[in-house]
Amino acid sequence: MLLLPRLLLPFSPLAIGAALGFIQPVGIVAACLFMALVLTPARLPDWLWCGLVIVASLLLAAHQLPGFEPWVFGNATRISEDAPPYLLRLSWDKLLVGCTLLAWWLGQPPRQLGKPMRAIAVCVLTVVAVPGLALLLGVVGWQPKWPELLWPWLIINLGVAVLAEELLFRGLLQPRLIERLGTWPGIACGALLFGAAHIPFSPTFAVVAAVAGAGYGLAFHYSGRLSVAIALHGAVNLLHFTLLSYPLRKG
What we know:
- The chain is built from 9 helices and 2 strands; from the N terminus they run αααββαααααα.
- It is mainly α.
- Strands 1-2 form a two-stranded antiparallel sheet.
- Helix 1 runs antiparallel to helix 4 and helix 3 runs antiparallel to helix 6.
- GO terms for molecular function: endopeptidase activity.
């Protein structure tokens, strides 16, 4: 896809967020610099470009850069009896990470189809093993529910968190780790880094996230389609939201 239509992906949420007052001038500058970095990789050595994109993406996704205010939906509510109240919000900085990386991804050459049957097996194993491990380690409890905010949560979770994380860890990072380390070490290293990114939530939850990251990485590797990893990640998150303590069981 040509660059010009791809630019609509990050510029649209940037314009909307700025018009609604959620993105301040300093945030607009930061977003434009990030988009310029991501979408002009040929100007830098690949290792330097990749490192800068990863650092900038993590800073934005972790809300460490000024100029962005989240769009908060309602008040914090207790979704699970054994978990703290949860506040649904749209983070414009993380949304921009996902949309910008998606604009970059759509400009990449298509990947060859891999081994679909193995990808299916990995997906089935992941949706069973990840919630099971989370229950076993006690980071969540069995809490089936159908909250009123399910659909807005699903849209924000898929369109912001899942999209940004899969594009960053599987689309950008994993192929480069595989190229340098080999297939299995590359996937394992990517999964460990994905788990490490979740340490602020809980060290034990980071272990669960690392196992999930391995599943997402294998699904991407065997299918050759990032959309499979995104769908699998979304399915695991949906199971967490509807069947288990959300966001996490109180310690």
